[in-house]
UniProtKB/TrEMBL annotation:
Transmembrane segment boundaries: none
Residue span(s) of domain Lactate/malate dehydrogenase C-terminal: 148-311
Role according to the record: Catalyzes the reversible oxidation of malate to oxaloacetate.
Family as reported in the entry's similarity comment: Belongs to the LDH/MDH superfamily.
Keyword Oxidoreductase: yes
Protein name: Malate dehydrogenase
Catalytic residues (UniProt): H175
Keyword NAD belongs to the record: yes
GO molecular function (one): L-lactate dehydrogenase (NAD+) activity
GO process terms (BP): lactate metabolic process
Binding annotation for NAD(+): G7, A8, G9, A10, V11, G12, D32, N95, V118, T119, N120
Keyword vocabulary terms for this entry: NAD, Oxidoreductase
Domain Lactate/malate dehydrogenase N-terminal: 1-141
């Protein structure tokens, strides 16, 4: 496996750390417009290979896309960070353009790669990549709500005093403010969440409050350290693992909505089967009527943003 990471910032480097510590790839490429920064990071990582647990993965870094030749997986974390008081739509324009340019460069050297888009707004950026490059929809995965779902699992795990891995639930929709939680599938230890709480003398969880807490989780981290890195990097590594081991894992990643739930033309997080071909299948869930209405409303809001960004950037939508 050859893995590329574009963007040698806080998130890109955190992803490299997971790949080097846990992964089983033969080559890791770190690319940044600031090539020296990427080189410095991988030179630093290189010293880990002298230690007993370090893996001798071939490391390449710089600013030249040719390094990505025949990469199997490319993670895009490059882009601008939101500035104080900057409207989100402005960041969407800037980063959608950057991500499409990057994907066009990647396409020249690794047209068969699976792309994992992390740069925010990741769902919008993935949507514009699908519509403005030769990458097929199944090759382009937005990291979407995997991190939001991890946050949900941790919060419910703390409440139920269970390992978060024994919590089942999804955050779906858009990574960010337009996400929702289908309460009908939330569970702990294989039991419906209300049943679990009642049987264990715990207060029931208010689904609306839970969703608010999930939405605030990223903000609470950002307020303290001015970025978020570890949770998102672990989420990206989870997707890398599903692709590289052809796991057919169901993950709430951002996928092109193309006649799913009668919706067309956005990227939203939906439970999807992830394997060697990227998105192998988008699962259709038996959502309640209310949940379906919520999903449709989110899609319509996102379509509005897509059309505004397309108008200004002249990207296809
Ligand atoms: N999807 C998520 O869950 C999630 C979570 C955290 C951060 N993010 C996003 O990830 C992105 C990166 O965050 P970060 O904290 O690493 O930022 P950062 O500022 O630390 O790093 C960004 C890097 O991208 C590089 N870069 C910018 N434009 C480039 C281009 N055109 N080509 C190559 N490299 C380029 C910069 O030189 C910099 O090294 C941001 O958009 C952030 O909002 C997403």
């Amino acid at each position: 496996m050859k893995i590329g990471v574009i963007g040698a910032g806080a998130v890109g480097v955190a992803v490299c750390n997971y790949v080097l510590a846990l992964g089983n790839c033969r080559e890791l490429v770190l690319l940044d417009k600031n090539g020296a920064r990427a080189e410095g990071e991988l030179m630093d990582f290189g010293h880990a290979s002298s230690l007993t647990f370090g893996k001798n993965i071939r490391l390449n870094a710089g600013d030249d896309y040719a390094m990505l030749e025949n990469a199997d997986i490319v993670v895009i974390t490059a882009g601008a960070q939101i500035k104080a008081d900057q409207p989100r739509i402005e960041l969407a324009e800037v980063n959608s353009r950057i991500c499409v340019d990057i994907a066009r460069n990647v396409e020249q050297y690794a047209p068969n790669a699976i792309l994992i888009v992390v740069t925010n707004p990741c769902d919008l950026a993935a949507f514009f990549i699908i519509n403005n490059t030769g990458f097929a929809a199944h090759q382009v995965i937005s990291s979407g709500c995997v991190v939001d779902t991890a946050r949900l699992m941790k919060i419910v795990g703390d409440h139920t005093q269970l390992d978060p891995k024994n919590v089942f639930g999804y955050i779906l929709g858009e990574h960010g403010s337009h996400c929702f939680m289908p309460a009908s599938i939330l569970g702990a230890g294989g039991q419906p969440i209300d049943f679990y709480c009642d049987n264990n003398q715990l207060p029931r969880i208010d689904p609306q409050q839970l969703l608010q807490d999930v939405k605030r989780a990223g903000y609470e981290i950002f307020k303290r350290k001015l970025n978020t890195t570890h949770g998102v990097a672990a989420s990206v590594y989870r997707i890398i693992q599903a692709v590289s081991l052809n796991e057919h894992s169901v993950l709430p990643v951002g996928v092109l909505v193309d006649n799913h739930y009668d919706l067309f033309g956005s990227v939203l997080s939906l439970p999807s089967v992830i394997g060697r071909n990227g998105i192998e299948k988008v699962l259709e869930h038996p959502f309640t009527a209310e949940e379906l209405t919520e999903l449709k409303q989110i899609h319509q809001q996102i379509r509005g943003v897509i059309e505004s960004v397309a108008k200004i950037t002249e990207l296809n939508c």
